[in-house]
Amino acid sequence: MKKIFGLLGLSVMSFAYSQSFGVKGGANISTISKENSWGDKNSKIGFYVGAYMNAPVNALLSIQPELIYNNMGVKYENGKTSHTLNLNYVAMPIMFQFELIPKFYVEGGPQFGVLVGNKNKYESDSKTIIEKDKDAYNQLDLSGGIGLGFKFNNMAIGARYIVGFTDIKKNGSTSWNNSDKQLRNSGFQIGLQYGF
């Protein structure tokens, strides 16, 4: 029995020792799903920044929970009016990373987000209007991510695609036309991470 507890203790200590921490950041190219007939839509360029912990499970698999500030949204034009929607989330992705080839990894996992702010900006030839209507949006956002990356020294460069599973707007919101449509976040991320 002592040997079993000893082995368990060594395993836990080895797992804890092998964990690494770091910071990450980069660019978001985001949009909203096309289930809404807005007409012409364009992606919006934003950013993300945060921290992560990487915990190897074995030689091929590691788990990487993250805590990031994520600027999502969409930019589109409707006639002579340009509309930019900024949705700011504190998000927690939990990525399962597989290093099938040394230094290269693929990843996938869920992402949970909490809306912390938003801004609607309408621009036309004559005026600019800015609205903040947080009550029109769901506070929780569930999505999933898949990606790949390359590690070098204590850094990595990675790209990730995010697809939303939940509607960003609240049911019955008067701030949206076609309110029966599902509006979901999606985006492409590219950036760097630095481990300590």
Automatic annotation (TrEMBL):
Matching InterPro entries: Beta-barrel_OMP_2 (IPR025665), OMP/PagP_B-barrel (IPR011250)
Cleavable signal peptide: 1-18
UniProt keyword terms in alphabetical order: Signal
Location of the Outer membrane protein beta-barrel domain: 20-169
Keyword Signal part of the UniProt annotation: yes
Domain of life: Bacteria
Full protein name: Outer membrane protein beta-barrel domain-containing protein
